[in-house]
Amino acid sequence: MYRTALLRAARSAAQASSRVQRPAFQRAIQTPFIQPRISTPAFAISAVRCYASSSGLAQEEVTGRILDLLKNFDKVSDEASRLSPQSHFTNDLGLDSLDTVEVVMAIEEEFSIEIPDKEADAIHSVTQAVDYIMSQPDGNATKPSSPVQ
Amino acid sequence: MPNKLSGLQKDVLSLYRSCLRATRTKPAGTRPNFAAFARREFEKHVKMDKKDFGTIEFMLRKGRRQLEIYEQPGVTNIAG
């Protein structure tokens, strides 16, 4: 609310440059360092742009993070040479079902999400894990980063 | 591990998952102990015949009750 009031004050100050209004405006904002901020509306717009342009995760990044995570997983470290973006947890990396659960939980922690049981049961390979992460709202698998209106 | 898991097998994995979730509520230092404990408890019966439904269901109930107990905030550490 305070910000809205400031912006409104700034706009009215910019429109009416009469000498009567100016001192009132300056009195309203007592700290001088705020003044350049509100007197240049471009700043506010660029801030909004920055916020929207923080696009989701790229597929390569997701794959990289999952592979790193697997590399540090003690049961995989012996099979590290067979680790690839196409690896199957059980067939290629020799993990049992409990290990698979652990890997999926580790992925949950890595990406700060919670994977429901049903989806978690369906993840058996690096590819499936990447696909799942990319299908989440923060992933941008199909659409390139589109600016939020 | 076959691709298709039976409902019972999924229940077991789901219990293991809840166990791992529960470890997150524990102090960071003792979390690995809890995870190792859960893993050990499951591995004790890893050779269980998957057709032995009665026993598996009994173990599941036992495991859930155990989880309830260890989940309590008063439990802060466990033999790792």
UniProtKB/TrEMBL annotation, chain A:
Span of domain Carrier: 60-137
**Family to which the UniProt record says this protein belongs:** Belongs to the acyl carrier protein (ACP) family.
> Would the keyword Chloroplast turn up in this protein's UniProt record?
no
Q: What is this protein called?
A: Acyl carrier protein
Summary of the function given for this chain in its UniProt record: Carrier of the growing fatty acid chain in fatty acid biosynthesis.
User: A Pfam family name for this chain?
Assistant: PP-binding
Q: Which GO terms describe its cellular component?
A: mitochondrial [2Fe-2S] assembly complex
InterPro entries to which the protein is assigned, alphabetical: ACP, ACP-like_sf, PP-bd_ACP, Ppantetheine_attach_site
Q: Which domain of life is it from?
A: Eukaryota
Q: Which residues form a coiled coil?
A: none
Q: Which UniProt keywords apply?
A: Electron transport, Fatty acid biosynthesis, Fatty acid metabolism, Lipid biosynthesis, Lipid metabolism, Mitochondrion, Phosphopantetheine, Phosphoprotein, Transit peptide, Transport
Give a GO molecular function annotation for the protein.
acyl binding
Q: In which pathway does it act?
A: Lipid metabolism; fatty acid biosynthesis
Automatic annotation (TrEMBL), chain B:
Q: Which Pfam family, giving just one, matches this sequence?
A: Complex1_LYR
The UniProt similarity line reads: Belongs to the complex I LYR family. SDHAF1 subfamily.
Q: Which UniProt keywords apply?
A: Chaperone, Mitochondrion
Pull one GO CC term from this UniProt entry: mitochondrial matrix
Protein name, UniProt field? Complex 1 LYR protein domain-containing protein
| UniProt-listed InterPro entries | Complex1_LYR_dom (IPR008011), Complex1_LYR_SDHAF1_LYRM8 (IPR045295)
All residue ranges annotated as the Complex 1 LYR protein domain in the record:
11-68
Compartments annotated for it: namely: Mitochondrion matrix
Q: Does Chaperone show up as a keyword for this record? A: yes
